[in-house]
Amino acid sequence: MNKSLVNKILITLGFLLAYRILAYVPVPGVNIDVIKEFFDTNSNNALGMFNMFSGNAVERLSIISLGIMPYITASIIMELLAATFPELGKMKKERDGMTKYMQIIRYATIAITLIQAVGVAIGLQSLTGKGGESAIMIDTTTFITVAAFSMLTGTMLLMWIGEQITQRGVGNGISLIIFAGIVSSIPSAIGGTINLVNTGELNFLVVLAILAIIIATVGFIIYVELGERRVPVSYSRKVMMQNQQKRVMNYIPIKVNLSGVIPPIFASAILMFPSTILQASTNPIVQKISDFLNPNSYTFNFLMFLFVIFFAYFYASIVFNAKDIADNLKRQGGFIPGVRPGEHTAEFLNEVASRLTFWGAIYLALISTLPWILVKSMGVPFYFGGTAVLIVVQVALDTMRKIEAQIYMSKYETLSAVGL
């Protein structure tokens, strides 16, 4: 491992450490004990799930309580708009246009963060502890202003950290922030499980069964994520002679899961938002609706299954552009054996991608719901879903690929330097 790669890894770890330190910086004017008490009684619902994704920053009402989700939401909205409006899609493909595109995402992130931060600050006004103490220790108007700017600063810092990791470190910065948040919750989850076993609330054999489910889930995710359909490509003799010194790919790799972890994340965000809002109401009908949308309910997981399939198809249609691939292939003098170049190639690639997306969508939907159903059937009193495992495994695989690519690149540079 060369010095450059070691420095990139250390830079990545340093920024992730800064992220974890920010998770312990609370919003000024908040009674942390009341917030912690509230989250202890809501660990098995949407708030508990959101707290897990933030690395327990929400239960401390940290300045990064909103996490990186506003940035992800803004990115998804822009992706949808780019797919809908051709001019925006064209801007995204240009070098100068991409800079403007990212700037729009940043402004959208600021707007979304401010809306969510003000909503959280207003919602905390009615929160009180068991002893009647309020969650807010300063003037309401002052608190809303301070909380909004504190959370906006925290989210902007997270966005900056993510960009710095992507540019100067190893891997995708935003994905690694989500990864670090989930992984940081593992020690407390293990400690809580041990306490349940010690108090007799959880059987040791059930713990072994849960561990087996986790291992099987991880193995299945790795198997599918590494799976791809390789569509063979042939080139004319003239093209091969012109590219003797270059590596010409003789196949088009199409992954089984084209949409990545976006469908489960987006589906979770949509389903958690109404249930989080409805929990503040004391109306019996509203409370029943909130119970239906609880992450520990079968209704939530059934809707999760359907939403993941929908977003898997939708996002795959955005990220996989068969027409562009066919045009580039034709321009380079390549063709798929037995398929005419141009429109016929695009139709063939779309057909292959559609078949793979069907199985990829089913895989994502099962991973997002099946582990919870299995654990629920054992009577386990805490939330366990496959979405978190899916994110952790996918980010780990992606980071390992990028580290491996850096190692191979350094080897090629060394061989080139010595004349081999």
Automatic annotation (TrEMBL):
It is a multi-pass membrane protein. Pfam families: SecY. Keywords: Cell membrane, Membrane, Protein transport, Translocation, Transmembrane, Transmembrane helix, Transport. Component of the Sec protein translocase complex. Heterotrimer consisting of SecY, SecE and SecG subunits. The heterotrimers can form oligomers, although 1 heterotrimer is thought to be able to translocate proteins. Interacts with the ribosome. Interacts with SecDF, and other proteins may be involved. Interacts with SecA. PANTHER family: SECY/SEC61-ALPHA FAMILY MEMBER. The central subunit of the protein translocation channel SecYEG. Consists of two halves formed by TMs 1-5 and 6-10. These two domains form a lateral gate at the front which open onto the bilayer between TMs 2 and 7, and are clamped together by SecE at the back. The channel is closed by both a pore ring composed of hydrophobic SecY resides and a short helix (helix 2A) on the extracellular side of the membrane which forms a plug. The plug probably moves laterally to allow the channel to open. The ring and the pore may move independently. This is Protein translocase subunit SecY. It comes from Hydrogenimonas thermophila.
